[in-house]
Design goal:
Elements lengths: L2 E8 L8 H23 L4 H14 L19 E7 L4 E8 L5 H11 L4 E3 H10 L13 H11 L15 E6 L5 E7 L20 E4 L3 E7 L1 H6 L2 H12 L3 H16 L3 E7 L4 E5 L4 E7 L4 E4 L3
Parallel strand pairs: 3-4
Antiparallel strand pairs: 1-5, 1-11, 2-3, 2-6, 5-6, 7-8, 8-9, 9-10, 11-12
Helix pairs in contact: 1-2, 2-3, 7-8
Length: 302
């Protein structure tokens, strides 16, 4: 069984979306899930599939990660990302990087080429240089839409965009033919946040988790609540230790635990048998999925 599911953030206001908006998101999500699934179809590893998918979403200014990231109060991009390999539960993460085009690639380098799990800020970027990765100027990340959004928030105005700017994150979870699970998540973070704020995305067990034989999870939403609930690991533990079906474990987290804390967002997950679960407690979540049975879904609304 091969399976891949991706998300591009939860919290979208569907009433604000035009037909052209929907078409643009559908096209990007479809293209991304197809590219990631092609990796699996050619016998590639789940880790390669999720890296490919998340890298593509980071490059797309429609989504809050990489190019087009949400900006801090100082109008800067501070980017977070993580990857986890379910085979041996190795993980890599970066936080508050400001010049890395594809933070998910750097997070994977941290996992594979360092003795650490997380690097942040200037230390992470120095490591990127050691790895031969090019740094991007800050202006690369500041799209006109993201600048307008942070400016409107600072004026106390509502911003009529369709991007899930407060809950936006991108992620992918995959199962390959060898039964290996992997998860990857990347984000530009909350718009107009304090500089130095880090959400759940790079925190293993909060926004990202994978363990062979159990499940892989990627989260999107208000990161503080996913950290407090240790959301991704909670789901995996419910499956592994309580024997809950993956769908029930995800539903418990999204519809009972998160709301109990006051949190909004969504989860994508893949089980050890290739079951794909997508769930959210917001109006919509950008998402797409494919598996080796021929199933292909691209969706925003419930």
């Amino acid at each position: 069984m091969r399976a891949l599911v991706i998300h591009g953030g939860a919290g979208v206001v569907l009433a604000r979306m035009s037909d052209s908006d929907r078409a643009a998101y559908d096209e990007s999500l479809g293209r991304t899930v197809d590219a990631g699934f092609e990796v699996l179809d050619k016998g590639g590893m789940s880790l390669d599939a999720v890296t490919t998918a998340v890298r593509m979403l980071e490059d797309d200014p429609l989504f809050n990660a990489g190019h087009g990231a949400g900006l801090t109060r100082q109008r800067d991009a501070e980017l977070d990302a993580a990857v986890m390999d379910g085979r041996d539960q190795r993980a890599g993460a970066v936080a508050c990087v400001t010049h890395i085009k594809n933070p998910v690639v750097l997070a994977r380098r941290v996992m594979e080429r360092s003795a650490h799990v997380m690097l942040m800020g200037t230390g992470a970027e120095e490591f990127a240089l050691e790895q031969g990765m090019a740094l991007m100027p800050g202006r690369y990340f500041r799209t006109a839409q993201r600048l307008a959004h942070v400016d409107s928030l600072q004026r106390g105005e509502d911003f009529p965009d369709v991007v899930p700017a407060t809950q936006g994150t991108v992620g992918a979870v995959a199962l390959d033919t060898a039964g290996n699970l992997a998860a990857a998540t990347s984000t530009g973070g909350l718009t107009n946040r304090l500089p130095g704020r880090v959400g759940d995305t790079p925190i293993i067990g909060a926004g990202t988790y994978a363990k062979n034989g159990v499940c892989g999870v990627s989260a999107t939403g208000e990161g503080e609540f996913f950290i407090r609930s240790v959301a991704a690991h909670h789901i995996a533990a419910a499956v592994e230790y309580r024997g809950l079906p993956l769908r029930d474990a995800v539903s418990e987290l999204v519809h009972r635990i998160l709301p109990g804390l006051g949190g909004l967002g969504g989860i994508i997950a893949v089980g050890a048998d290739g079951t794909i679960v997508t769930e959210f407690n917001t109006q919509g979540m950008f998402r797409a999925e494919r598996d080796s049975s021929g199933r292909r879904v691209v969706a925003i609304a419930r």
